[in-house]
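Slide 14.
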Amino acid sequence: MTAPGRRSSTFTRLLRHGFTDASAAERLLDSVELMAVRDDPVLLEALGATADPDQALLGLVRLLEAQPDPTARRELLDTLIAAKPLRDRLLGVLGASAALADHLARHPRDWHALVTYEPRDLHPGVEEFERGLAEAADPVSLRVAYRRCLLSIAARDVCGTTNVAETAAELADLATATLRAALALARAAAPEDAALCRLAVIAMGKCGGHELNYVSDVDVIFVGEAMDGADEGKALRAATKLASHMMRVCSETTVEGSIWPVDANLRPEGRNGPLVRTLSSHLAYYQRWAKTWEFQALLKARPVAGDIELGEEYVTALEPLVWQAAERENFVADVQKMRRRVVENIPAAEVDRELKLGPGGLRDVEFAVQLLQLVHGRADASLRSGTTLDALQALAAGGYVGRRDAVQLDDAYRFLRSMEHRIQLYRLRRTHLVPEDDADLRRIGRSLGLRVDPVAELTREWRRHAAVVRRLHEKLFYRPLLDAVAQLAPGESRLSPEAARERLVALGYADPAAALRHLEALASGVTRKAAIQRTLLPVLLGWFADSADPDAGLLNFRKVSDALGKTPWYLRLLRDEGAAAENLARVLSAGRLAPDLLMRAPEAVALLGDGDGGGLEPRGRDHLEQEILAAVGRADGAVQAVTAARGVRRRELFRTAAADIVGSYGTETHPAEADQGALVDRVGAAVSDLTAATIAGTLRAVVRDGWGEELPTRFAVIGMGRFGGHELGYGSDADVVFVHEPREGVGEREAADAANKVVSEMRRLLQIPSADPPLLIDADLRPEGKSGPLVRTLKSYEAYYRRWSLVWESQALLRAEPVAGDDDLGRRFVELIDPLRYPERGLGDEAVREIRRLKARMEAERLPRGADPKLHTKLGPGGLSDVEWTVQLLQLRHGYEEPGLRTTRTRAALAAAHAAGLISAVDAEILDEAWVLATRVRNAVMLVRGRAGDTFPSDGREVAAVGRYLGYGDGMVGDMLDAYRRTARRARSVVEVLFYGG
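Slide 15: predicted structure.
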């Protein structure tokens, strides 16, 4: 017994689980109905997970009380405790909806509707809902059956089985099934009327758009035609009776309440017009009398009940008129005026709580989306969706709305619709006002997953999303250029020929005559494309001029524009997102590599349009591998599979190159990246991850094509050199070694043959000439080099390294890292080589001398004849080789003692050497700066020339472009070269001491 003045442990647990009236909850748990399970932790946990635990518990007790007998009560309790799906669904609904709790108390057997949990129950459509309503013989039983179906929709919604868009679609499908059932009741009541006419029910508004609320008017339009041989006047009267009866079946209040009002006021002439018209009458009205808003409403028209064929004829006949509406005089102004009028009609006391119609509300998103659809959908059929979120996605994909803007609008719309759903679900009442009571706000917040401080979090999130909607609504809805686009007016040319030629000379174009021809090709004519180009080109010309080769930038822009000229999203993307246009200008004028990659698949220009550059963020290894393996899985044969993998690689190389260029050049809103090392690391990691994912996909394709799901031998690819070190550049080969291990029962010869065939086929497929750049696999770092077998077993590697391993091979293994194939085999290979690359006693004096001899011989023999050693980024003094060999010598000597040195990455190993006290901070910084600069130069040469190189280009424009990439302005090539020599010279001084012991 609890001592006086002290709270019981149950009371405390109830508060901890989110109950607000723990005393009342204790009493309910002590009731006869719940005695058997009151102490079951599963029940309390489930109640605490609901939107309103107090309400859920009360609803459960009421449901138990309503059971017809103890056996039924026991069945409910047993199922509730044993079956988590039912428990979550039932308690979730009881905690979110008092109205559905009332329904269950009136119809206590309806909880069985929540028991089934099969795939077909997760996303039901019209057909499933029609089955659920099939037994309804009158308006009362139809309401009961409707609520039963609604119960299952709400359960999936509150449990998160469906998202807000799927829930809205299910509600629209249930409304469709209900309209059909109601029409069937009307036909059954008046078979003589049904025999005279064809009647089609056209859903409008949210029902037509497949995005209905829990409680909403269902907007419809009726189309009627006479049956063959029937008098048209009599047929229309009969159709009107049927339509009126159908509306009453849904709208009238009975002992089970009503379903929802059916509203036919969107029909021609509204309430003053006939309820049912023939198709020809509808068409005549819209051709002659319809107002702008009526065409906007028709965006969502969808036949749902009655004569579907007639309904489809209606939609087909009116669709051309919908997409001509934007050509009407004052079209944009009319739509904007109507939106303002809606806001002005909201009572002042409610405007700040109006979720649907207020500023920053749902209607702002819908109006903006619909306006853009009507303007641009004439030429782009992909925009012709009646569903707001689908249309928004299409607008973003087409470039009519910025991708970042679209994501923010999508997030905000989903959040606001979720709030609207939860508000309506509670009492099943039609309202769009956010409640003021804290208990209501708490329930709504908890239902949306806001559990720490539901009221404050809900209010904050609501205001944040509303502010986003309001800002973007103003941006999209009142965009100044929109009206010009709607009218397809050519407008006044922003750039006359004379002004263009003068400006081209002033901007530094080497061939203004050729540039002017490009401008004329891009901007001449009265097409929409030309009008938008005339708006864009003046600012683009300035951005091109801010590069070493503006002529190339303009030429490349013309090529991309020609390739994408019939793609509606392209120019919208550039016009509406300043970042996209500037990013494209930088990419097209920075050299050959990125434009070449882009020309092979120009649609990749869309990657440039994600506002602040989010579309240029490199994708991680897991994401890339998942996409490539999925493409391989869909392909028919290895050639097609590897072609798909190489296509992904080309796109991602473009993404990486574009991000590198934009980060190096900077934009008007974002300065160039100050941390040069971060730029190098991003490129190295991105290209290395991409190469690994491509090899993994190619391996999967080759194995599947030749052997099915499993190769006769375990097989792993080990990255070496820059690949293993995550330091690949744009033009790097993939250095690898291959290891295999026969599966149980497979002979050595069979396994070796299979492994060699895999390697041969992988190399062949990755080098087949195509539009995608080849990926060269170099296995020369294997034991015995080119003279040794291409693939070895793990045991063969072990035997070789035990008997024959040379010090240079131990050094090469410092960069070894598994990149594809059998994970366990790759791990065991690493375990095998760790004692070689991190020897327990470090390196002996003779081994150190051997490494130094190898380095000196390499510098003498491999440096190209005629090259300036001081400017050779790889083999020159202070170049990559100097830094890397110095760091690797430290790893070989101290890696066993210092775990931080056990990394394949040069910069990470250098930092670890400093942390271990093996190198001073100053020397580490000097070496790091030199390595980063040399890597940046190599990347720049590849970006500028389109082919790899280890020294600065000799061509004036090309070397200037390298300078621009490295942050040097016009006329500063000499400064750049001096800075490189100075940096390399300082690094060489450190290398002389640390590597050569000078």
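Speaker note: Confidence is low (pLDDT under 50) at residues 1-6, 478-496.
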